[in-house]
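Comment on the following before class.
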Amino acid sequence: APAPPPCPPPSPPRRRCSCGTAVGQTANAPIRHSAAADLAREVIGPHARIVEQVPLGFGNSNWRVRAGDVDLVLKIGPRASTDKWAAGERGRRLAAAAGVPVPEIHDVTTTDHHVVRTYRWIDGAVSPRDLDQAGRRRFGRDLGAAVGALHELTHTGFSSRIGGSALVFDHWSDYCVHRLGQITVRAGRSGNPPARVVSRVVDQVERVVHAASGSARAVTCHRDLHVDNLLAGPDGHLRAILDWDMPEAWDEAGEWFKLDWMLFPAIPEAQVPFEAAYRDLRGELPDWDRRVRLVHLIETLNVLANSGSRSDADLTSRAADHLDVLLNGQDDPG
C-alpha cells in the first residue's frame, strides 16, 4: 500500500476564550444548555444560538448551533485531551485526503477547561438504521470501500495515536502486549472482569499474539465504526464517518471489533457487501481469523475494564457475554 501523504498539523486554536468557568470548573462537569449557549456565542459569535443537543454520533458534549444561515456542531471536551484530539484531527485529515467522507472542521478554540471544536452540520443525512434493505446494502458497499481506502494509509509502526505523540512499536505483538498490560491494570482497579477471567484472556492472547503479528499491517484505523458514528443519504450512499477521536495506527483487523460487535448486528444487510468491497481494495487478508480474534479478546476486555467509570449496564452485560463466548468457544481459529 502507498505511504500516506505528509500530514498537515492540526488547526491551531483560533483564540482563548474567557468562559471556562461558565461551562464548569472541571473538565468532566455536565454541560448545561445555558452554558453551551454562552460558549457558542463566545466561540462563534453573538449571533450563534443553540438549536438542539446532539446526543449521538459526535461524542463528548455536542450541540447543534445556528450561526446566520449556517448550521454547525459544537463539540465540547476536556482540555486535558488536547493531544489526543490533535492526533485524531491528523487521522481525520488523512482520511479526507484519501477520499473518505468526513465532517468538515470549522474552528478549534480553547477555554480554561475545554477544547471546543466546531464542524459543519451535514444536511439531508439519515441514520443507516432508517434505510430499507437495498439502501443498507448500498451503504455497506460504500462503507467497505471507504474503510478500504482508509486502510491504504500505512504507518511505519503501531501506536495508540497518529503523529508520534505516543509510543510506536515495530511489531503488532509488542503493541498488543503493551495495550493488554494497561487494560489489565484498569481491570484490577475496577474489579471487572474478575481476576480469573482476566488471567484466561491473557493466556489466550499469549497463545495467538505472535503468530497473528506476522501478518499484521500498520494502517490508519478509525476504531469506532458503529451505527451512531455513520451517516447515510436517503438512498443509502455513505455521507460521512463521524467522531475521529480514536484513530490509531493499528492492524487493519482492529477495525473489526466494533464492526462485528456493534455495526453488523445493527444493520446485518450491510455486512456481505461491506466485506466484498473491502476485499476488492485490500486483496488477500492472511491469517485473518486469528488476527480478528486477537483484537476481540483485547478490546472486549477493555470494555469491561472501563465499565467501572461508565453507567451503561447493557453495554457491560453484552461485553461480558461476548467475552464468555470468546473464552469458551474455539481457542484458536488458526
